[in-house]
Amino acid sequence: METYSRHIISELSGCNSDYLEDTDKIREIIINAAISANAEVREVAVHKFSPQGVSGVVVIAESHLSIHTWPEVGYAAIDIFTCGTTTKPQEACKYLAEQLEADEIYQTEIKRGIPGQNGRFFHQKANESRSVGGVSQPR
Amino acid sequence: METYSRHIISELSGCNSDYLEDTDKIREIIINAAISANAEVREVAVHKFSPQGVSGVVVIAESHLSIHTWPEVGYAAIDIFTCGTTTKPQEACKYLAEQLEADEIYQTEIKRGIPGQNGRFFHQKANESRSVGGVSQPR
Questions:
Q1: Which ipTM was obtained for this model?
Q2: In CA terms, which of A1, A98, B104, B133 is 20 to 30 Å from B90?
């Protein structure tokens, strides 16, 4: 199995707070986000916190997708870790941002599991972006 | 609930391959790693892949800890995302590296959920390290 993986880290701002508080909605969209990335869903865990917030994680093949929400400020922290070359993590991020009605996406992509010397592995930033209403902005 | 979170990304190399293939071992150590970080475990999902490899995720309060393993090359990709100031994600990483007998840890810490202008959130690299046999090395 190839070790090379892509890890997308995103902060979604200006989201619909009702959605960020809705456990069923979060479960539905994280599963569909994984599918939109061309990934196979193996396990799903969603938890509602008191007084607010939802955490959700989908385990996909050698990979995962996670969300943690702060409805009180319209913010969600997203991680999408995918292995190999057939999955499309950017599609999953785009899908989540659309479904949550985010108006800003602050994102960094990191290459994980890069083979180095002597059987050691490292990671490296691949690219970074910030977009508001779908339009690219300086960071 | 405070949005500020710490996210530790680690590549563990030179791990004990038998452990990386052992679903029960992985389940046990990710739960104990979360506890060592002073976090409360809410959900656990572990999945074994064919022909090799295990993925495990622990959902903790507004946070998560994940592992993906490649036993054939002694490699594990670790993510520890913790919210607030009472958890100690570095402890969890250290614990996992010890339990898996990793001889190299390649690590980056990212500050997540940093409040910016106009109610927007961003992230920022906090520090990076590489250690071999517990001794700090240049990256």
A1: 0.94
A2: A1
- pLDDT digit string (tens) for B55-88? 999 998 778 999 999 999 999 999 999 988 889 9
> Where residue A82 falls among pLDDT bands split at 50, 70, 90?
very high
Whole-angstrom Cα distance, residue B135 to residue B122? Answer: 32
Residues A114-135 have pLDDT tens digits of 999 999 999 999 999 999 988 9
- Integer Cα distance of A126 and A46 in angstroms: 30
Taking the model in full, what pTM does it have?
0.95
**Contact at CB, B57 and A68, closer than 8 angstroms:** no
B61 contact residues in A (CB cutoff 8 A) = 49
The domain tally of chain A equals 1
Which domain, by its residues, includes B78? Answer: 5-137
Are the beta carbons of A121 and A115 closer than 8 angstroms? yes
Distance (Å, rounded) from C-alpha B83 to C-alpha A66? 14
Residues of A whose CB is below 8 A from B63: 55, 68
Contact: B73, A49; criterion CB under 8 Å: no
**What CATH number does residue B54 fall under?**
3.60.90.10
